[in-house]
Design a protein that fits this description.
Keywords: Signal. The protein contains 3 helices and 9 strands; from the N terminus they run H-E-E-E-E-H-E-E-E-E-H-E. The protein is an alpha+beta fold. The chain has one domain: 3-Layer(aba) Sandwich (Protein Transport Mog1p, Chain A). The strands form 2 sheets. It has a 7-stranded antiparallel β-sheet with strand order 2-3-4-8-7-6-5, with helices on both faces. A two-stranded antiparallel ribbon has the order 1-9. A hairpin with a 5-residue loop joins strand 2 and strand 3. The protein is globular, with a radius of gyration of 21 Å.
């Protein structure tokens, strides 16, 4: 009887460990609902040489990378939890200022106490402006942009893209 109990206990332990390992091996994904009516679609997706970053480029309708008015970009930093999202945004802004010294950054909203801390800002410059949304997942960091070839973001565009980015979700698959 004791032997059967030990076997059952060992079997239960192994099943529990297997289930726990499967739960912890789920992939984290950020889902963004790019406007379907505008036909946003992925035109390029690449991993860097070290596998630590994935870049996804989206365009709408029949626009091309060489000839577009709007572009969406997502950078996924795998296992990159060391850089705070505000630092990431500041680094991007300072890098952009080298090429567009008159660029201005405005923080729109942020929640650093959320389960997944996030920040949304706009960066406007003479040749290109963008809404930037950065969110920190459990295993990855995500940096998302909607860019336009306008020198300012209209209030309507800002409202639209803030709503789209805030409605995104981090899920486990």
């Amino acid at each position: 009887m004791k032997r059967q109990f030990k076997i059952i206990t060992l079997f239960a332990f192994l099943i529990f460990n297997n289930i726990n390992a499967q739960l912890n091996s789920k992939t984290e994904i950020l889902t963004i609902n790019w406007p379907k009516e505008e036909d946003w679609h992925i035109v390029d997706q690449q991993n860097n040489a070290t596998g630590t970053m994935t870049t996804i480029v989206l365009l709408k309708g029949k626009e091309t990378i060489a000839n577009h008015n709007e572009i969406g970009t997502t950078y996924i930093y795998h296992g990159s939890l060391s850089v705070p999202i505000e630092t990431e945004i500041e680094e991007l802004y300072l890098s952009l200022k080298k090429y567009a010294p008159t660029a201005k950054k405005t923080i729109i909203e942020k929640d650093d106490k959320a389960k997944h801390p996030w920040i949304i800002c706009k960066i406007e410059s003479p040749e290109k402006s963008m809404i930037h949304y950065a969110i920190q997942g459990k295993n990855e960091s995500y940096s998302n942009f909607w860019s336009t070839k306008q020198n300012e973001i209209t209030p309507e565009s800002q409202e639209k893209w803030v709503e789209i980015f805030k409605s995104s979700k981090i899920i486990l698959e």
